[in-house]
Amino acid sequence: MAKSDDNQSGLRKFAPFLAPSERDQLHGLLSFAGPTPEGFAESLRALARSFIDDGSSAKLRAVCLLVADLLEQGWDVSFETEGLHFKPPGIETSTQRSMEDVKLRIRSVLQVARRRQLAEPSVRNFITRMERRTLRTPGVKSSVLDLIDDGGALANELAMVNIRPDAERDIALAELVDPVVEICQPGKRCQDTGLPLNDIWRYFRHTWAHEYRPIPGRQLLVLIRNAARPNRPVMGIAMLASPVMRVSVRDNWIGWLREAAETHLFDGTWQPTTFARAITKRLESSIQSVRWDDLVSPEEIETPVDNTVLRLEQKASGAAFARDLELRAHYQTHIEVGGRVKPMRGSLKMAGDDTDWLTASEDLLFVRKRAELLAQLLFAKQVFRAADLSGDPTAALDQLLAARTGQRAIDIVLTEFRKAGLSSRVADVSICGAVAPYNELVCGKLVALLLASKEVRDHYSARYGSQVSVIASQMAGRAISKPADLRVLTTTSLYGVGSSQYNRLNLRSADHHDLDNDLRWDSIGRSKTGGFGTLHLGADTAHALRQMAQTLHTSRRVNNRFGEGTSPRLRQIREGLDAIGIASDTVLHHATPRLFYACELGADARMSLMGMASEQAEPATAATIAGAWRRRWLDGRARRDETLAAMSTLGPKSVRRSLIAGSQDDLLSDLD
User: Fold this and answer.
1) Does residue 227 fall inside a structural domain?
2) Are 65 and 42 in contact (CB under 8 A)?
3) What percentage of residues in the chain have a pLDDT greater than 70?
4) What's the pLDDT tens digit per position in 625-654?
5) Residue 109 pLDDT exceeds 70
């Protein structure tokens, strides 16, 4: 492990809080020259397991686990006099490194955590159970392997199509490849094998390049199956998930950032009168979505003044302090052996028809949130009124955008647009790709396109459109349901250097008579410096850091409850890193840039997210999209001899082999 130069680009220094003896012990482990010895990361983990989870030993245990994770992820680590030096791998911009080199490096790093997960007894047992041929439907023994198509047989069928006249080709391909959408729901089973659909999805998810971690929030698990083949084999899988709250590339593209809004007003994309009406309506809607009767008077809601805002800010600070005392008392009462503390969920255990939302809104967490938000909203209302936004929108917007108070007021309302959009009208495509042998037929593009289909959007609306929002209801003091009319889908490239799956992914209505509107995925920008995440940190490390955070604060501040904040895992790890003296951003900020893609579900999708359009065209059906995909991509790919040859090596055995070996060499998912 070579010593790092302090002036080297990308170097990050850390000085963890360790006793002198522990610092010497860690220095002895990490003070060597040359490449990292084979198995060194696992040796660190073994050492960490020998430490007791109390006092300073817990700190050293957390540091050892952290270093082990980062080493396996390709970080350079060394121990200098003043502390640890870490350098993330990132993406080198040298012309000597091709796109494939970058993908290979990232894929190999991700494989470390994936292999470790596939070796876990619970995961091995799950895979074995799914592959075991068992009587699951009357008179038929089945296995998940029955849902993986035989690549050789499919290639032979395509070869037969290739010798038919061109006039018959379109119909012949449809009779061989007929994609259908199947939504996974708890308790629902596959009609062909009797296996739970959720388990089928999870099995194929384990074939992806990175480990499988369940995520909180909304999620829709999707299987794409070939209805034209025996057992309707799985062609690909996808998942729609709750989007990340703050993504500057996406937010700028939609118009949720002030700089973007100002640009749209300047170039005439947005009309000042329309925009002024939209932000005024959004502001009033947000105010009415907050319970305020115990905080301010009706007169103060109608005509807020400086004192109103100040009093609300003081109320929020008082509630935050009182809740901190509650968390500390809970910690002292419920701390267990090994430092475990059960979460403090609050009085609301679960939402139901008889939930007392008024009482739930009086939880100290929500008193703080209500007072805090209301202070911001009433400040914005006060500023807009002073600028006469409703009377002279053009002059008012010029004035607001030129002054700090006006800029802050606009920022507040744009944040409300973002919160409303992300809560119900934007979804992130967190998983999307093809399953062997269909990856050779460009089925990753098919899966991405089908996520915009009527079937998927109707399922999403049916599942979440009537669902009571726990957070919004506690903020309002009454039951609140939000619409689930998807307007935009977003995703990022795993490799940060381009995506063959999403590049040029465009079906034009001019080329396909049965499509009423163009359907496309667009590249919307690239993060310049990477983002924040925990993908590179393992479960043991997260647990150790969580314990460190609780010890420092003598409280459990992340309780995995609605309203406490987004991404509990990220917040827990951040607090733990800070607790051991390591600046959290320097570990959580990965140096891998991301490319962002988006699919607008309708011509005015972005305008509707800004409250300036409401009409939505009828979406295309899965059958219509599949037909266009066959003509646009499948027809040409199926004519290639090299494609048919590659398919012949893929099938149940190649998938099973990849899961047993824990490698991606054979396979499958179109992850880029």
Assistant:
1) yes
2) no
3) 78
4) 999 999 999 999 999 999 999 999 999 999
5) no
3-state secondary structure of 488: strand
Percent of the chain predicted with pLDDT > 90:
53
Buried b (16+ CB within 10 A) or exposed e, 510-536: eebeebebebbbebbbebeebbebbeb
Helix (DSSP H) and strand (DSSP E) numbers for the chain: 28, 14
Helices (H), 119-165: 121-131, 151-162
d(CA 658, CA 667): 7
> Would you state the structure tokens that stand for residue 127, as one six-digit string?
């895979």
**Nearest by Cα to 565 from 257, 356, 330, 320:** 320
Average predicted confidence (pLDDT) for the chain:
83
The token duo for 422 is: 């992300």
Rounded Cα gap, residues 376 and 408, in angstroms = 9
- Residue 402: Cβ-neighbour burial (10 angstroms; 0-12, 13-18, 19+): exposed
Domain membership flag for residue 4:
no
**652 falls within a domain:** yes
Whether 655 and 563 map to the same domain: the answer is no
The pLDDT, as a whole number, for residue 342 is 62
Task: Find the mean pLDDT for residues 503-508.
Answer: 92
CA gap 537, 72 in Å, rounded: 10
Domain limits at 216? 112-244+425-529+594-661
- pLDDT confidence band for 8 (50 / 70 / 90): very low
Q: 540 and 470: one domain?
A: no
Q: What is the pLDDT of residues 547-578, one digit of tens each?
A: 777 666 555 444 445 554 556 677 777 877 87
Q: Output the pLDDT for position 104.
A: 65
The total number of structural domains that make up the chain: 3
Decide: 471 and 593 in contact? Cβ < 8 Å.
no
Contacts of 453 (CB under 8 A, 6+ apart): 181, 619, 620, 621, 622, 625
Contact call for residues 370 and 474 (beta carbons, < 8 A): no
Residues 55 and 197 in one domain: no
- Give Cβ neighbours of residue 564 (< 8 Å, ≥ 6 apart): 365, 558
Name, in order, each residue with C-beta under 8 angstroms of 24's C-beta and a sequence gap of 6 or more: none
Domain identity same for 239 and 122: yes
Q: Looking at the structure, do residues 621 and 507 belong to the same domain, yes or no?
A: yes
Last residue of a domain, one of 377, 404, 423: 423
- The answer to whether residues 558 and 484 belong to one domain is no
For residues 204 and 186, give the distance between their C-alpha atoms in angstroms, rounded to a whole number.
17
472 and 515 belong to one structural domain: yes
Q: Record the tokens describing residue 54, joined without a space.
A: 């109390």
DSSP state of 634: I
Residue 185: inside a domain, yes or no? yes
- Output the DSSP codes for 525-545: EE-SS--B--TTS-HHHHHHH
Plot region of 589 (φ>0 → left; ψ -120 to 50 → alpha; else → beta)? beta
- Put simply, whether the predicted model's pTM sits higher than 0.70 gets the answer yes
Give the residue, 48 or 555, on which the prediction is more confident: 48
Q: Which of 366, 390, 423 is the last residue of a domain?
A: 423
3-state secondary structure of 291: coil
Q: Which two tokens stand for residue 575?
A: 């607090």
The answer to whether residues 188 and 197 touch, using CB atoms and an 8 Å cutoff, is: yes
- Answer yes or no: do 519 and 536 share one domain: no
End-to-end CA distance of the chain: 31
What is the C-alpha radius of gyration for the chain, rounded to an integer number of angstroms?
27
| Chain Cα centroid distance, residue 604 | 24
Predicted confidence (pLDDT) at residue 95 exceeds the cutoff of 50: no
User: What's the pLDDT score for residue 466?
Assistant: 81
